[in-house]
Amino acid sequence: MAIDTAFTELSSFLGDRISRSKPVLDQHGGSETHFASAPPDIVVWPENTNEVSRILKICSHAGLPVIPFGAGTSLEGHTSAAKGGVCLDMARMNQILSQDPGDMIAQVEAGLTREELNHELRTLGVFFPVDPGANATLGGMAATRASGTTTVRYGSMRQNVLGLTVVLADGRIIRTGSRAAKSSSGYDLTALFLGSEGTLGIITELTLRLHGQPEEIRAGICAFPDMGSAVGAVQQVIQMGLAVARIEFVDETTARAFNQYAGTEMEECPHLLVEFHGSPTSVTEASDIFGEIVQDFGATGYEHATKAEDRNALWKIRHHAFYAVQSLRPGAHALVTDICVPISQLAKAVEDTRADIEASSIPGPILGHVGDGNFHAILLIATDNPDEMAEAKILAERMSRRALALGGTITGEHGVGMGKLHLMEEEHGFGWALMGDIKTALDPRNILNPGKLVPQAG
Amino acid sequence: MAIDTAFTELSSFLGDRISRSKPVLDQHGGSETHFASAPPDIVVWPENTNEVSRILKICSHAGLPVIPFGAGTSLEGHTSAAKGGVCLDMARMNQILSQDPGDMIAQVEAGLTREELNHELRTLGVFFPVDPGANATLGGMAATRASGTTTVRYGSMRQNVLGLTVVLADGRIIRTGSRAAKSSSGYDLTALFLGSEGTLGIITELTLRLHGQPEEIRAGICAFPDMGSAVGAVQQVIQMGLAVARIEFVDETTARAFNQYAGTEMEECPHLLVEFHGSPTSVTEASDIFGEIVQDFGATGYEHATKAEDRNALWKIRHHAFYAVQSLRPGAHALVTDICVPISQLAKAVEDTRADIEASSIPGPILGHVGDGNFHAILLIATDNPDEMAEAKILAERMSRRALALGGTITGEHGVGMGKLHLMEEEHGFGWALMGDIKTALDPRNILNPGKLVPQAG
């Protein structure tokens, strides 16, 4: 049997860095969300790019699916081994290969997490800005073209990855991009692999763009009488081009969840959390303008802090939002929606979403990276209740279709995986078929993370 | 004969927007640089995306090459009809389809030039920043992934194109991206077509990201005792993260060319031209810091201006650099090199290039967008002197190989075309073969701008 033969071949050079034990398989086939568990047949822990190449040659020869696995924090079933196969757990490829603050570049292995990287960079006066909330691996963040709280200022993975090392389906190794700030040298292969969700190749190393630690950072929070005011303030801030480094919205239910989960004492109403980076002068200037704008929109008590511990306390709340919100309904599964619309359509998108959720039987706090026009409703579904799941899926689909009608996209940052396959043709038309053509050209046997992103045969 | 049949079919719906007259063909097959003229068989002037689709269906059926043509300012032979065929002159697709300052978006046709766009946007308080110098079409800029003087602050086409309308080889029309600020919805088709040089599809419309007119703009110029000091100052400015909106280097020969061509009275020594955008406070702050840095590097007479006419006079000089430099050797052909290196390697790359040129018999002024690590030597070759051409090509190759050795790229902004084909495998390894696989998947009959960018059969 192909699996047994592959296991023997892989064991020959992986030693004890391979497993078929059921708990290990289950752990790698599950997810933090509503997708059913689909474990792989084998889990391996490669230690370098050459090993990944060797593994892919074996899997390619045997026609076995290969599923890359980072921190397991993805939300659309990306790591599900829908067709079995070999899971590549990247946990042992977590080295920083080089740090070069002079060029504002770090070269890292794909299994390193963003928090590990920033911890190491702390003393060098630089940092890597992309912050999706979860402590994801940088390879996983590249694979989903992740973004997050700081994207409004620093961009997403698209703007902050200069190059990649990728192992192709047949085991060939390529290096995309360079250490230069830009290039016009042929097709943008870096961009092609960013967001490809493991379906075109396995990302093993990344060349990342770093940013200087701002001289001053000021974080703030303010409370709004209603959601419309908060979102209106965001639109105004973005449209006037105010240089915010972060601008996050949480609704009253999310505020309540924070209070329950983390013991905070937030007023249970909509809030904006904001951050400014720059020189003391520019930060003060921007923060003052922000204060005036939110006051015009009825906000009260705009508090801000520059001390690191106060700022960290504020953002820790936001980073635990997913778990805090889940605690509102213990044991529930989450269906996390993720749309992104032009900023002029944000208020309509958020308000129509809220109306949909209020008319449903499902709790769904709303929060998001509103400076980009990106927000989430976290739909909490009682485990094993198919009616609720069906209702949640209808809610989620309505959100996605609304995003398209408003000129936006069905996913701002979480990706397609299995959860949004059925909406891809609506968003992309023939473009989705084109994605399928590219997939076939690069992975003719369809071994790379099958069942995700592209049109499925049959 | 295929051409005659195609001409008849195309004439049936293009009326007088089609030509086989020799002067027209010659005009479309030439270039401002050293490439030999290679005229197409037919030139057509489509007026909308549907017409482009119809043209491509006819050419695809007949197996005829299709070469898109914008302003004809590309520098690597991109518009050469190396295998004959039908040239699509995009001049009549020059409309602004929508302007939406609220979302900071404009939708335009591919034949619109960047200056035409910015002229229209002027009264709306927004602008499109990418500035390659030449008044190129936006479609052409997308096709070469252009950048330029403002990329150090606002990014290249990669960061400023949100979506594209593209006609595929078989005439199908796709729309990539959306009006949202970001997306994780599948492969980044927008990025794939940016820099594809007409080899994967014909770009007919673009959704562009606009930026707010800065409250204040300050431009400045300063003179350095030698090239090393000027480049050293740039490295320091970039490494400390000073927010320059433009930072351009010109060497003493370029300064002399400006004086001859434009009647300026620049000191004939290396200069930096710089610009700052922001609030009056932040601009003053940054400009003062810049003044201190360049003084440390021996610069004299840092002059700056905030009035529009003074700033425009300064940048007009820079924008005419190509023609000014050409005037140093009337009638000469230009071979324009274009490498980009990590900022830490900029001084070495520039100085070694200078040494190479000084040891040669060819004049080669050096200038560039040094904030990105990108610079050019404009090698001036006596027309019809094969020895000089051979020598210039060796110089250019040495520059490209040096860029690769220093972690950079063989082209920062001009693209591959025909001029850099022979260096692609050195830069990309198997990645270049992968580009060929993608090309074959999207254009199996190789009708789209054949002879450029990807590996050539036979």
TrEMBL record, chains A, B:
Keyword annotations from UniProtKB, A to Z: FAD, Flavoprotein, Oxidoreductase, Transit peptide
Gene3D superfamilies referenced in this protein's UniProt entry, alphabetically: 3.30.465.10, 3.30.70.2740, Vanillyl-alcohol Oxidase, Chain A, domain 4 (1.10.45.10)
Pfam families, A to Z: FAD-oxidase_C, FAD_binding_4
Keyword Cell membrane: no
A GO molecular-function annotation: D-lactate dehydrogenase (cytochrome) activity
EC number: 1.1.2.4
Domain FAD-binding PCMH-type: 35-213
GO biological process, one term: lactate catabolic process
PROSITE patterns in the cross-refs: FAD_PCMH
Cofactor: FAD
Listed InterPro entries: FAD-bd_oxidored_4_C, FAD-bd_PCMH, FAD-bd_PCMH-like_sf, FAD-bd_PCMH_sub2, FAD-linked_Oxase-like_C, Oxid_FAD_bind_N, Vanillyl_alc_oxidase_C-sub2
Family designation: Belongs to the FAD-binding oxidoreductase/transferase type 4 family.
Name of the protein in its database record: D-lactate dehydrogenase (cytochrome)
Organism name: Aliiroseovarius pelagivivens
